[in-house]
Design brief:
Elements lengths: L6 H6 L7 E4 L3 E5 L9 E5 L11 H21 L4 E5 L15 E6 L16 H11 L3
Antiparallel strand pairs: 1-2, 2-3, 3-5, 4-5
This protein binds guanosine-5'-monophosphate and zinc ion.
Guanosine-5'-monophosphate binds next to strand 2.
Length: 137
């Protein structure tokens, strides 16, 4: 069930804007507005679960499969050298949006990213360019 005050439920429902790059019956993937690196995406289940503790095993597995698709595309289409999959469960682990999500963070040899990162607004043109490459064809 969607939760009215949840940003990611609103994105899944098309009620809030997002640059969506992939979707299937159970998941949606879209660009993070504060990308840690070029091509940083978020994979969310369509159904609302607050965090890793709440999401059922089968939906978690579907999210992992979606995250792997995005990771493969990051390597093939953005020439990423590696990928970090990251999930934050709870405020102490820096979770800020309480709708389960995986971060799919492409990594580039020598990139300056150190985890945890300090989020900052991304360059809209660069986000759009990476999205065009990552989008489901
Ligand atoms: P968390 O901190 O919960 O692990 O990750 C939440 C992520 O959601 C952050 O990386 C943040 O940049 C991203 N985010 C927050 N608000 C929005 C938004 O309105 N649109 C998009 N596309 N991403 C968002
Ligand atoms: Zn939600």
């Amino acid at each position: 069930m969607a939760q009215d005050d949840c940003l990611f439920c609103q994105i899944v429902a098309g009620e809030a804007p997002a640059t969506i790059v992939d979707s299937d019956e159970a998941t949606v993937a879209f660009m993070d507005i504060n990308p840690a690196t070029r091509g940083h995406t978020l994979v969310v289940p369509r159904a609302h679960y607050a965090d890793l503790a709440e999401i059922p095993d089968d939906e978690l597995a579907t999210c992992v499969q979606a995250a792997r698709r995005l990771a493969e595309r990051a390597v093939e289409r953005l020439e990423a050298d590696g990928v970090n999959l990251l999930n934050a469960q709870g405020r102490a682990a820096w979770q800020t949006v309480f709708h389960f999500h995986f971060h799919v963070i492409p990594r580039y040899e020598g990139d300056p990213l150190r985890l945890p990162w300090t989020p900052g607004p991304g360059d809209p043109d660069e986000i759009a360019g990476a999205a065009a490459r990552l989008r489901d064809e």
